[in-house]
Design goal:
There is one protein chain. The protein is of the alpha/beta class. Among the domains are: 78 residues, CAP Gly-rich-like domain (SH3 type barrels, Roll); 77 residues, Roll (Ubiquitin-like (UB roll)), CATH 3.10.20.90. It contains 14 helices and 26 strands. Helix 2 packs across helix 3 and helix 9 crosses helix 10. It is globular. It starts with 5 loop residues before the first strand and ends with a strand. Belongs to the TBCE family. It comes from Hypothenemus hampei (Coffee berry borer). This is Tubulin-specific chaperone E. One of its GO terms (cellular component) is cytoplasm.
Length: 531
């Protein structure tokens, strides 16, 4: 029987002072969990728990002995010190990146200054190693307001006193994807930068501060994605940064959103919680105490239903919420979309990659969303001339199409017990009837389109100012249409195609496996070619 792994005693570990250090090796990031010798293997070994489990080989055990623990069964391995990058100080990273001479004119000026100095001290043979760079960049350092040391392997903050003297005017600092381990280090950095208002610490595995009473009211934009943070961690950090206006905490481990009236988010307007395992809409409703909230991103949180659990036409909270992103979720019913009309002032919605959107063609789903949400002005950030905004004419077309699409069902249920169910799903139907009148049965007759499926449609294909008219079958695959266009204009690569509808609405033909009619391409539509 194979021996069960046993824990190695604490005395067996050497150099414990860097256990827990963050390292990089071959483009992979990890944490030092063990330093010492291993029986039958010469020399000193470093046990690493890798952020990417595929980089490892085991769970920290070898030959029946457990040298360290890992969260994943294959995220551990042993490597030599020579293969490890333990990083550099923040000052080294800053000078290494921003100390490079970038302005040829400035360089020439300072070269002349050095020559003049050499003449003054009558020592033309003396070489001032590095002096030209330091002198020429000193003023440049002090003028820097936006500093980015992402991925520069910063692991410590030695000589931090130089930060304020060399870089006193930093306003935006990106420390993401480095090797820092302590929030105390981050706060020490903030202490040195009185002008700082934007701080990005994403992709650093930091230990939360204990008994640190420092507060930084100047920080208003805080970015902390990919850090395995919980909502409780976020609330602790909000006490340190009490004036946050914009908080981006995507791709963390946030599962619940408890929030009471004593919260520290009184100035919060923009909140990004995308790709956290939140799941429930009830959690989102808990954010209602953040009265200043204007822009909420909750894409990819596992959301499958939206329900405010009220019959009120409008809810009495989220009064300032005008922008919402719910893309990449599991929403599979139109009633959930109808619920969003209860938001008092929703103007912009991003709603992509949800199952309900696969049932109908793109232009139909757009019309349904616009018809359901009476205050909507921007949908999926569509770009036409400037920002795509839903004008009165476009809205009228969507609402009338919606009225017509569900008109027969309405006539069937309006005097039956099914009426309430219908009006819950089609929340604005009575409003649309008031606007446009109830359609007569003769106006709601559905054409038999099955005989029209294979009728050719004429497309105006536009490339580089040239228009070519081609007749194609609505059942043609997008992939074949792209190949046709490539040959038509003798392009080197397969192009991207965009259908420009009657309303100047851009519909990317971006799924090669779909037929043309899936995108509701109609006769005489314009196809824009991009290569």
């Amino acid at each position: 029987m194979k021996n069960q792994p046993t824990m190695v005693s604490e005395e067996y570990l050497n150099s414990k002072e860097i256990i827990g250090a963050r390292i990089e090796s071959g483009g992979f990031y990890g944490t030092v969990r063990f330093i010492g010798t291993i029986p039958n293997y010469a020399g000193k070994w470093y046990g690493i728990e890798w952020d990417d489990p595929s980089r490892g080989k085991h769970n920290g055990s070898i030959n029946g002995l457990q040298y360290f623990q890992t969260k994943h069964a294959t995220s551990g391995s042993f490597i030599r010190k020579e293969k490890i990058n333990f990083g550099k100080t923040l000052i080294e990273a800053l000078i290494g990146k921003y100390g490079k001479e970038e302005n040829h004119t400035i360089k020439k000026i300072h070269e002349q200054q050095i020559i003049n100095l050499q003449k003054q001290i009558k020592a033309p043979f003396i070489e001032f190693v590095g002096f030209d760079k330091v002198s020429s960049k000193q003023s440049d350092f002090q003028s820097l307001e936006i500093v980015n040391v992402r991925g520069q392997f910063v692991s410590s903050i030695d000589k931090l006193e130089q930060l304020k003297s060399l870089f006193p005017n930093i306003r935006q600092l990106d420390l993401s994807k480095n090797l820092l381990t302590s929030w105390h280090d981050i706060l020490d950095i903030c202490d040195q930068l009185p002008q700082l208002y934007l701080l990005n610490v994403s992709e650093n595995m930091l230990v939360l501060p204990e008994n640190d009473q420092r507060i930084f009211p100047n920080i208003t934009v805080f970015i902390c994605g990919h850090m395995n943070l919980t909502w409780q961690d976020i609330k602790i950090l909000s006490a340190i940064f009490p004036n946050i206006n914009e908080l981006r905490a995507n791709n963390n481990n946030i599962t619940e959103l408890s929030c009471d009236k004593k919260h520290n988010f009184h100035n919060l307007e923009i909140l990004d919680l995308e790709n956290n395992p939140i799941g429930s809409w009830d959690n989102i409703v808990n954010l209602k105490v953040i009265k200043s909230l204007q822009d909420l991103s909750i894409g990819g949180i596992g959301l499958d239903k939206i329900d405010f659990k009220t019959d009120s036409e409008k809810i009495d909270y989220f009064h300032n919420l005008t922008k919402l992103c719910i893309s990449d979720n599991n929403i599979n019913d139109w009633t959930s979309v109808s619920e969003l009309n209860r938001l008092p002032n929703l103007e912009e919605l991003r709603f992509l990659n949800n199952p309900i959107l696969n049932i109908e063609p793109i232009d139909t789903t757009v019309a349904i969303v616009v018809a359901k949400l009476g205050s909507l002005k921007v949908h999926n950030g569509r770009q036409l001339v400037g920002e795509f905004r839903i004008g009165d004419e476009f809205r009228r077309g969507c609402e009338y199409d919606y009225l017509k699409k569900y008109g027969l069902e309405w006539l069937r249920v309006k005097n039956t017990p099914e009426r309430d169910r219908f009006l819950k799903e089609h929340n604005r139907y009575l409003t649309l009837i008031q606007l446009y009148g109830e359609l007569e049965p003769e106006e709601l007759k559905v054409e038999n389109t099955s005989t029209l499926k294979n009728v050719l449609v004429s497309l105006n294909i536009i490339y580089d100012g040239k228009t070519v008219v081609k007749k194609v079958s609505p059942s043609m695959m997008i992939q074949k249409l792209k190949v046709l266009v490539q040959k038509l204009f003798k392009l080197d690569i397969i192009p991207e195609l965009i259908c420009l509808t009657d309303n100047n609405f851009e519909v990317p033909l971006d799924d090669d496996t779909k037929e043309i009619n899936y995108f509701s391409v109609k006769n005489q539509d314009r196809i824009l070619v991009k290569s």
